[in-house]
């Protein structure tokens, strides 16, 4: 595999996303399209980390639930991302129960849009790797660290929103994401020295 850059996609501002949420709740199909285009790549990346090749199917179930329950949703753009990630996680866990497997991380597809938000050594190192390699490294992390990194970096949630998705405290999510990114940086440093 040749050296490929991690694809970055500019995230919509939270105010713009919040406006699209409000318009979609009122039945504006164009606004819903904006929500889908903004949030779907991040959810798909997160789901690939949880259920591997079944991510598309689980994403479809997730969007079914989002459409069904959107009118009852209350919150801004960040809250919508967290709400959608929570639904995705529940659908992923339901899927895994159906196939009688425990949650696992798996490699994400290279086409997954992966916005990088952390300006630290781990984030910088991930930018220099191919998407496949970066996601393979994330998949090798312990489950709690992998999921925290996926929610914080791929989905773009802050610690309180990611904590709500995982049913943990924000400090635990920050710690898991920090440890995961630290492990990634150490592995990258070790690989570069060889």
What features would you describe in this structure?
GO terms for molecular function: DNA binding; sigma factor activity. Belongs to the sigma-70 factor family. ECF subfamily. Keywords: Sigma factor, Transcription, Transcription regulation. The chain has one domain: RNA polymerase sigma factor, region 2, helix turn helix motif (Rna Polymerase Sigma Factor, Chain: A, Orthogonal Bundle), CATH 1.10.1740.10. The protein contains 9 helices and no strands. 69% of the residues lie in helices and 0% in strands. Helix 4 runs parallel beside helix 8, helix 5 packs across helix 9 and helix 8 packs across helix 9. The longest helix is centred in the C-terminal third of the chain and has 24 residues. It has 194 residues and is mainly α.
